[in-house]
Amino acid sequence: MRNIEIENQTKNVSARTKEKVFIFDTTLRDGEQCPGAAMSEDQKLEVAQRLEVLGVDVIEAGFPISSKIQFQAVQRIAREIETPIIAALARALRKDIEVAAEALKDARRKRIHTFIASSPIHMKYKLGLEPNQVIQKAVEAVKIAKEFTEDVEFSPEDATRSEKEFLVELISRVIEAGATVINIPDTVGYTTPEEYYNLIRYLIEKTSNSDKVIFSTHCHNDLGMATANSLAAVRAGARQIECTINGIGERAGNTALEEVVMAIYTRGEYFNVYTDIKTKEILKTSTLVRTVTGMVVQPNKAIVGDNAFAHESGIHQHGVLKNPLTYEIMTPESIGLPSNRIVLGRHSGRHALKDRIIRLGYTLDDLQFEEIFQRFSELADKKKEVYDEDIIAIIDDSARKKIKTRYELVKLHVFTGKGTVSTATIKLKDQELLDENGQPKVLTEAATGDGPVEAIFNCIDRIVGLQTRVKSYRLQPISEGRDAQGQVNVLVQINQRVFAGKGISTDIIEASAYAYIDAINRYFSNDDNLSVHFPKEGETI
Ligand code: KIV
Ligand code: ZN
Q: Which of 182, 227, 298, 474 is the most exposed, having the fewest neighbouring CB atoms within 10 Å of its CB?
C-alpha cells in the first residue's frame, strides 16, 4: 500500500473526531433534468443501486408529480433501496406533496423535499406572489409534508439572489413548522465562495433554532464555481452537500459528487469533516452514469476524467515513478482506478478475466460470467489488447441488452467511398411481426445517404416506418489504441420526444447502427421519455 493511501486512511480514522457531511445525491432528479440525460425506470434503479453501494446518505429519486415515469421510478427505488434515505421533490403545493408522499410510501427511510422561490425576481415574475404569501405557502407545505414523514427538507429556490433578512424570516418560520433540513440553493450558479460562505454563516447565526436543523448546500456550475461554493458552505457550517455524479444537471450542471467527496477525503484536515462515501466506488459509478445517460466526461475532468491520473510529460513520469507523491495528491486506487494497467488479450483465460472483473468490483453469477467471457473472447480476437474500460463497457452493455427490444440487427452491409453515394443494406429482426411459422420476421431494406451513417439511419427508418430527426451523434473511443472499441451515442427525435441510444463495437459503422436501433427500440417500448416534463406552477399530471 502506498504511503499516500496510508496517510489518507489515518486521516479518515481521525475523521471520527470530525463532523460528518451528509452526501445527498440528486443525479436522478436535478441531474436528469438536463437535455439528453433522461433515464428509463430500469436505468434509474440501476443507478440508485450503485449509489447505495457508493454509500450516499440520501438519494433524491425524482420529482413524482412531473410525470408518470417519474412517479413510478421514485416508487420503485423507494421499494427496492434499503439503506439511503429516499427523497422526492415537491413544489409547495398540497397535490405535489401528496403525490411525492404516495411515491415514497414504501421507502424504509423517506424525505419530502419541498421548495418555493424566495428571490424578488422569482417571486414577482414566476410566482406572482408577495413575500408574505411565499412564507405562508412554505409554512403550509412543510406542515403538509409533516403529515407524511418526520424528515422534511425545505429549499428557498434562488436563495443566493434573495434578500438575506427575508431568508432568515422564511427559514425561521419553516423550522418552526417542522423542517429538519434547510437547503440553500444557488439555483442559477451566481454566487462566489466567499459570498456563499458569508450567507451560510449569516443564516446559521440569525435564524431561530438553526441548531435544530441541518443546513445544506445545492450549487449549480454556471460560473464553474459549484465545487468551490459547496466546500465554502461546508466551512461555514453546512453539513449536507447536494450533488450529482459527473456534475450532470441543468445548464452547466450541479456540484460534482466525486469532486467534493475527494476534496474532503484528500483535505480532510483542512475541512475538518468527513463523508461516508466509499471512494473506491467512484469510478464505477461515474462510468455507469456515463453509460446510461450517454453524457461523456471531458478527459481533463477532475477525479474521473481519463487524464485525471495520467502523467504524460517526461519530468512528471520520472517523478511519479520515483515517488507518486511528487505529482499525485491522491492515488488512482482511492477512486477505484486499478493502477495496474496489465491488459488482457486473446491468450487470457477465464481465470484472468474473472480476477479482473472481481477487481473492477463486479459480482457476476456463472451464467452472466459465461456471457461476458464469450463477448470478451470475440473482442480479444478483434483487438490485441482489452482494457478495463472495454470490460466495463461489455458488462454494462450486456446489462442494457436485457431490456426488451423490438428490433435486432441481423445483417449490415455498407458501400461507401470517395466519389460514390453511400448505400446501406440492412436486415432487422422484428420481434412483434411474426411469419407463418410464428417466428419473428426479418425485414430487409436498402437506402442511400450523405455518408455511411446517414445511409444506415435512412435504411432503418424505412424498415421501421418512422420519420426521425437526429439531434445529436457522438462517437468516442472506449479505450486506447487504433483498434479501440467505439461507442456511439445518439439522440433521436420522434414525434416531439427525444430518445437516447447507445452502441458499442470495434466497427464504428456497426456501433452507429446499434445506437440508432437502441433509440428506436426505446420509442417502441415507450421506455424512455427524454423530454423531461417540468410542470408549470399549479399544473398537475
Ligand atoms: O436549483 C435549485 O434551486 C433546485 C431546487 C429545486 C432545490 O434544484
Ligand atoms: Zn438545482
A: 298
C-alpha to C-alpha distance for 53 and 248, rounded to whole angstroms: 20
Of 63, 155, 167, 230, best ligand 1 pocket probe by most atoms within 8 Å of the beta carbon: 155
pLDDT in tens, 11-40: 454 545 899 999 999 999 999 987 777 788
Cα–Cα distance, 61 to 32 (Å, whole number)? 10
pLDDT of residue 539: 39
SS3 category, 408 = strand
Q: Are 122 and 160 in contact (CB under 8 A)?
A: no
Find the distance separating the first CA and the last CA of the chain, reported in whole Å: 55
Does residue 155 have its Cβ closer than 6 Å to ligand 1? yes
pLDDT at 128 over 80: yes
Whether residue 468 contacts residue 495, with contact meaning beta carbons closer than 8 Å, is answered with no
| Dist. CA 289–CA 181, nearest whole Å | 27
Cβ–Cβ under 8 Å, residues 442 and 429: yes
Q: Which residue's CA is the closest to the ligand 1 atom numbered 2?
A: 187
Residue-wise pLDDT tens digits, 444-488? 999 999 999 999 999 999 999 999 989 888 888 877 677 778 888
> Could you give all domains of the chain from N- to C-terminal order, each with its CATH number?
25-293 (3.20.20.70), 310-400 (no CATH), 407-525 (3.30.160.270)
Half-sphere exposure of 358 (CA within 13 A, CB side): 8
Q: Which of 253, 200, 188, 277 is nearest to 231 (CA)?
A: 200
DSSP H helical segments within 147-240, as ranges? 164-177, 193-206, 226-235
Return the best residue to mutate from 89, 93, 126, 230 for the ligand 1 pocket (most ligand atoms within 8 A of CB). 89
Q: Which ligand is nearest to the CA of 91?
A: 1
* DSSP code string of 435-468: -TTSPEEEEEEEEEESSHHHHHHHHHHHHHT---
Q: Are 478 and 511 in contact (CB under 8 A)?
A: no
pTM over 0.85: no
Query: 470-504 in b/e burial notation, b at 16+ Cβ within 10 A?
Result: eeebeeeebbeeeebbbbbbbbbbbeeebbbbbbb
Looking from the CA of residue 220, the nearest atom of ligand 1 is 1
Burial tier of 244 (Cβ tally within 10 Å: 0-12, 13-18, 19+): buried
Take atom 8 of ligand 1 and give the residue whose Cα is closest.
30
Contact 78/104 with Cβ under 8 angstroms?
yes
Task: Classify residue 276 by burial, with Cβ atoms within 10 Å: 0-12, 13-18, 19+.
Answer: middle
d(C-alpha 81, C-alpha 88), whole Å: 14
Can you tell me which atom of ligand 1 is nearest the CA of 185?
A: 3
Q: Which atom of ligand 1 is nearest to the CA of 159?
A: 3
CA–chain centroid gap for 232, Å, is 24
Give SS3 for 224: coil
Instruction: Check pocket membership of 30 for ligand 1, CB cut-off 6 A.
Output: yes
Ligand 2 midpoint to CA 276 (Å): 23
